[in-house]
Each structure stands twice: as C-alpha cells, then as structure tokens.
Amino acid sequence: MPMLHGCAFSGCSTFTLSTYCVEHELLVRALKESERAQGASLVDHPEDAPLSAETASEAQEPAAL
Ligand SMILES: [Zn+2]
Questions:
Q1: Confidence (pTM)
Q2: What pLDDT is recorded for position 47?
Q3: How far does residue 57's CA lie from ligand 1's centre (Å)?
Q4: C-alpha 45 chain-centroid distance
Q5: Longest dimension (CA), the chain
Q6: What is the 39 CA–ligand 1 centroid distance (Å)?
Q7: How far is the CA of 23 from the centre of ligand 1 (A)?
Q8: Tens-digit pLDDT profile for residues 29-60
Q9: Which residues are registered as beta bridge partners of 15?
Q10: How far is the C-alpha of 18 from the C-alpha of 12, rounded, in Å?
Q11: What is the mean pLDDT of the chain?
Q12: Cα(44) to centroid of ligand 1, in Å?
C-alpha cells in the first residue's frame, strides 16, 4: 500500500502520494513555469546584460586615467 503523506506546501495538510497535493502540484508547476518565463525574458531583453558590463567599464575608467 502506497504511503500517503502531507502535502509539502507549508500550511497545507492535504494527504497526497506525491510531494504536493493536486492543487499545490499545479501551483508549484505554475510558479516554475513563470520562473522559467522570467529567465527567458532576460534573453529577450539583452539590455539587462550590458548593464553589468557598463558598470564594470565605468569602474575601470578612473583607473585608466
Ligand atoms: Zn497542498
């Protein structure tokens, strides 16, 4: 007989066979999807990447002078 245990989501006491109950399994999956979408948006907006490069060159300027 498979072991039922409480949902891993804090505050949720629904018993489930997997890590989360069905409700929170979907919620966690949606959160992961949005995290992945945020990571992909960084690729879509390359202006976020040169920001650190600009800061680095600005920091080097006084040393070059
Ligand atoms: Zn739950």
A1: 0.53
A2: 62
A3: 48
A4: 17
A5: 74
A6: 26
A7: 6
A8: 999 999 998 887 766 666 666 555 555 556 56
A9: 6
A10: 13
A11: 80
A12: 34
**CA of residue 41 to ligand 1 center, whole Å:** 29
Question: Is residue 65 scored above 60 in pLDDT?
Answer: yes
Predicted pLDDT at 40: 79
Determine the average pLDDT of the residues in 6-22.
94
Amino acid at 33: E
**Is there a contact between 6 and 12 (Cβ–Cβ < 8 Å)?**
yes
Distance between CA atoms of residues 52 and 47, nearest Å: 10
Quote the CA–CA distance of 29 and 22 in Å, as a whole number: 10
* Percentage helix, strand, coil for the chain under 3-state DSSP, each rounded to 5: 60, 5, 30
CB-based contacts of 37: which residues, under 8 Å, 6+ apart?
Answer: none
More confident residue, 48 or 6: 6
Sign of CA pseudo-dihedral 22, 24, 27, 32: negative
